[in-house]
Protein: ATP-dependent DNA helicase RecG
Organism: Mariniphaga anaerophila
Amino acid sequence: MAVFLDQDIKFLPGVGPKRAELLAKELKIKTFGDLVYYFPYKYIDRTKFHKISEVHAQMPYIQIKGKIRSMETVGTGHKQRLTARFYDDSGSLELVWFQGVKWQKEHLVLNKDYIVFGKPSEFSGHINVVHPDMETEEEKQLKPSGLFQAFYVTSENMKKKYLHSKIINKFQLTLIQLGKGKIRETLPAHIINRLKLVSLEEALTIIHKPENTTDLRNARFRLKFEELFIIQLKILALKHNRENKFKGFRFAEVGFSFNKFYNDFLPFELTNAQKKVLKEIRRDVNRNVQMNRLLQGDVGSGKTLVALMTMLLALDNGYQSCLMAPTEILAQQHFQSISNFLSGMGIKVGLLTGSTKTKERKVLHKALEEGQMQILIGTHALIEDTVVFQNLGLVVIDEQHRFGVAQRAKLWQKNDLIPPHVLVMTATPIPRTLAMTVYGDLDVSVIDELPPGRKPIETHHFFENRRKQLNNFLQQQMEKGRQIYIVYPLITESEKMDLKNLEEGFRQISEAFPDVKVGMVHGRMKPAEKENAMQQFKQGETRIMVATTVIEVGVDVPNASVMVIESAERFGLSQLHQLRGRVGRGAEQSYCILMSSYKISTESRKRLATMVRTNDGFEIAEVDMKLRGPGDLEGTQQSGVGFDLKIANLGKDGEILKLARDVAQDILAGDPFLQKEENRELLTTLKATKHTEFDWSSIS
Ligand code: ADP
Ligand code: MG
């Protein structure tokens, strides 16, 4: 059966090869299906009419009824235009055409009743409408679609060739007319009945030609649901599939090391959130299925400790673990804190980074291969093929969004027979709705509680005029023994201007505080220099660190309790939150000062106000998603999922997404391979949808 929606767009009446080429190039519309799934971005209610006397230039559009009393051609050559004086019983305005002057002049009729639709503007004190839509009463009667006008995004190139929104709408109506009875229903009847959805054909008809708002709402719901449901079904089916195909190691024992650490070595009580997550992990690793878990927790919530205790579980069951961090300094920090936690337990922990010497490397390699070393911590150096484990059972990945998908996949292959369990830790809080889509095949744990005794960071927004006050405050804090970060934006590390600002900032700070040592770190320094600068700060030799966002991820200096962010309006919300997370690690009250100029956009203002209002990473992530849209969020690009949603909006349609996921889960629980007759449409739909860019089944 040649499927109706698969036909080449050039065969749609009115399109033809030239316009087909343009549609393909500008909007990626190649088939009937591509076109009908190209949805309007807005609708205008054309049941409303305006009086000319109430029209002003700020109105987005107007619809008026009246007559043309006079017309005149002005100018010559390409400057030629046609103007017409249009009257109703309240007044008059001007209609203007720059294009198709001759044609308009021949076809427009004086003193005939017209309906005029368009965007009013002001030109030397008078209101006019440029290139209005003109319809006679009879035309309007013939075309009962005109209640809500649908608008489509078109490109400049399309407009140049007169391929306007209105023509796209005409194509849509032609297509729907032709397609009556030929558009295959994609969802099975049991879902449609259960959720009282309108049929696909109806939904597609209404979306391009709505007659009232209730119908439109129902059509949009149906299409949004379908879009999100198919994604969820796909992701969850892959997950089922993976769990069936790959076995996982079973860590059945909670053994000697785990218990000894918990009872005798752990210097504090676990938070309830940490306990809850450990239980979830325990359940995962105890059922012969590979664990793929994403551990989300705000900076400082104690994820590393959870990872450590999971490593002890592996150890008690005879397996090795590794932890991979995105930078050398982070790897070192993990190595230090884990070694400290475990000191006296008789467990061998190793560190492998790019700067590990060849001689040390050899020793490490041998210890790993022979199983004398139980835990390895490192950077992506530990992905290299020369690193061979005797029996790797667990891979922990810190700060997930810094790693590419391919790097993660490589770690999987470090154990031949059965892939190790995977725990991914991230401090970038991902809103639930997004996590359900991007990481839909991972199980997600959340640590939503900070260890007790932490004082919430106080955040303030200062304009430039309070710089003196800021310096006084910094002086005070340093007299109390605290250390300070001052961060400058360096969006791309090669921007010369930014580097100059940073160096200028460094100079000013050094002058303002002549008695203290000021350090500097930025992305263009050599790794060893960076390392050195960070170490000096960590050891308290430098009291102020002037830096770029290179300090963003994970570095722990408990004595640093003040974070100043310069030109804060230039940072994204999640980045501001990450930076703020560098302070507030010790027992002292910590501060974050956001410096900005007076002239900032409304959006920047909202971002800064959000930072001042809340410390909650998830709330911040939600606001961020609403301001920026999900496709733009840090982490989603590398995830490999294109956010090519046509109608659903992850920021706004969380409820529908949840419903879609629940329904998908229900169906797969009863029919994991979609073999039942009642789900046949679904199998067809899944097979027909384009494959995502990478093979989900092989990735953590
Ligand atoms: P994250 O990796 O989530 O940013 P860490 O695991 O580095 O957080 O923990 C931050 C700090 O809090 C560390 O110094 C750690 O030892 C400490 N910590 C972790 N869990 C607890 C707890 N339950 N009670 C007190 N302190 C804790
Ligand atoms: Mg951390």
Summary: The chain is about 40% helix and 20% strand.
